[in-house]
Here is the input.
Amino acid sequence: MPDFDVIVVGAGPAGSCAALTIARTGKSVVLIERGPFPGSKNMYGGVVYPRILDALIPEWWNEMPVQRWVTRRSTMLLTDTQSLSIDFRSDAWGDAPYNGATAFRPDFDNWLANKAVEAGATLVCSTTVTGLITGANGEVIGVHTDRPDGDLTASVVIACDGVNSFLAKERGMYPHTDAAHFTLGVKETITLSKDIIDERFAVRGNHGVDIEILGGTSGVNGGGFIYTNLNSISVGVVLKLPKLAAQSKRPEEIIAGLKSHSAIAPLVEGGTVSEYSAHLIPEAGLKMMPKLLDDGLLIAGDAAAMCLAAGIWLEGVNFAMASGMYAAQAACEAIEKENTSAKGLSLYKKLLEDTFVLRDHRKLRRAPQLVLSDRVQHMYPALITGVVQGMFQVNNPVPKPGLRKILKNERRRLGIRTTDLAKDAITGFRSFG
Amino acid sequence: MTPVIGVCVKWIGSQPNSGHEADARFAQFSASDQAALETALQRAEQLSGRVRVVSVAPAAARTHLVALCASGAHELVHIAAEGQSSSAHVAHELAQHLQECASVWCGDYSLDRGSGSVPAFLASTLGAQQALGIVGITSSEVSNTLDLLRRLDAGRREIVRVVEPFVVSVEGSLATLRRASLASTLRPTATLVDASLVSQSAPSFGEFSPFRPRPRTIAAPVGETALDRIKSATSANSPQKHSEIVTLAPEAAAQFIVERLTEWGYLS
Amino acid sequence: MTLNWPDISFQDRMASSEFRVHERAHIVVNSDSCNGCTTRACVVACPANLFVPTADGGIVFNYEQCFECGTCYMVCNEEGAISWSYPEGGHGIVFHNT
Here is the structure.
């Protein structure tokens, strides 16, 4: 008899949703976390979209630890001396069931893991899983941990062990890991008073702002972000690894560069950095996704590269929660049918294919590459801001030029080929349209 | 009868000076508390005894206490108390559960930079000997007497001998707490005793204050000129002994020091 | 372009994060590989600045203030030059407000 029905490795959003789902069916499940408490190792930009929790925790919004509900979203283009924002606000996002929320992961993940514990899951913290135990036929039957007498067996292991997933790699489920598929996220949590945040970002009460920035990353392909928490703001950049490695500016210098931009400085100045953090992001979507299941093993969350980083959509926690939940459902079904082979666990794949988890990834499979491409990163912001500047600049006595002429001039000035522009427009339309 | 070795640990809700609010998630037991537990576990192995961890702590500390005890403690006495209590009060409450312990081990340093007076009150309450600042154990034979290496200022060390019953405060460098096994982390084996405060305030330990030598009266210096008076006041030019090196056995040395201090007027 | 002085020193920046350091290094660098390396991507990319080039062509590495992100071994082009694992359970970075 195995020690548990299911071992879940990692008490992040994927692992906790998996453990919660399994515990509710009455099966025994252990949730193993390497940090001193769930969420202690976890970092992200700052916004979670929790609607998937409707299925697990009705009216989750009454108890979830939230900093602010995002009611205002800005997408910002930056060049060295210009900025262009598209700003949207919806009062509907400030009321149940809400849309997105800023939250701190040590709060959010800890809350979610405790929901699993309340449902009957066993949580073990400060314990690092160091490898998989395999049975006579090569199937996964448990894990090794770094505690004395640290082996544990189960019918199914769900690896939610994060972006570096040593378990998926050990099992050979990542065909190859390419640095080009990852971005480094670094951020500063900057303490500012609530009044100042409310004023600077034009929000009230527990409403907040999400600003996504293209450009402003010192020429390294990636992007920037600013999110409002209750008494602090999160300011950071996301940097494509090979591009970061191929130049000489360090990550914290790139954040400093963003913070000194004339469009950003007035928003962030005067605060004190209360925490500096960094994490890798699996950025390439479907292109980098590993094999998702094997005999006795399921992979979910960041470990399965289920992170949607497609420019205007930056989501990850919701994909993690959903994949964890679906992995748990597949594990439960397989245990009930007494077939925990890859075939017995195949419900996982089906649930992912049928829902937003893989549908969004499939639809946006070309988006990450497009958004991080050199043209989108370095040329189009200059093109668009150049056109807007041409439109709004009053050069009397020179008469106003027509839009078509401005566009043509700017395109020539920047050396952008019409064919590339058309190609990217089609890719963009196919992804986002 | 199986000997019971006591360990006292201090709960700090969060790291002091971290700028963060008290939050059990970030709490830890100090390295010296952990060293105290490890030393007690080793002594229990030598004596085939049991280790009892006692702590005055709020309910929020429970999971941390249980996790700490998973390293091998046999009993956990959790004296429930929210809020701060005085050192004398805490010692009084701890003592209720340490009566049969021949040795009690404490951490020498708490994360909130406490005064370190709980072990002293505890020793007084239990009528036990006390030693603090312990960085090593020099005696190897198993007996009711232990020779302990104690840290003094300026890098010096001294060896102190304690005889049971004793209360010892150890520094974090003495030992590293062993890692709890996975099994004992999953299913805690320590017997859990829920206790409550026996009194709401500290019993009186009497009046006490720091030892401050009384000032001595010195006659005004005599002399014709200011220079003479200064010479007289400072004993300059006089063939006086400024230091004296004597080699004596410890008992005689102590006696010698007491005599000199009395002679100089510091003791009466 | 104006010269931007950092608004916070690197030491103060790193001091804003909590690290529970374990005595065992979870990063190990094979200096033989580093001596021939010309790219030294880890030096610029590590967000905690843990990799420091030395005058004799080697690399000194620290592990104490590691965010456990994995950037160093991902950007390293020398197979096996950086061995990287997680620190012992309960140790390493502890985030508070992320």
Observations:
- The two ends of chain A are 52 Å apart (CA to CA).
- The first strand of chain A starts at residue 4 and ends at 9.
- DSSP finds 14 helices and 19 strands in chain A.
- Chain A touches chain B through 19 residues (CB under 8 Å).
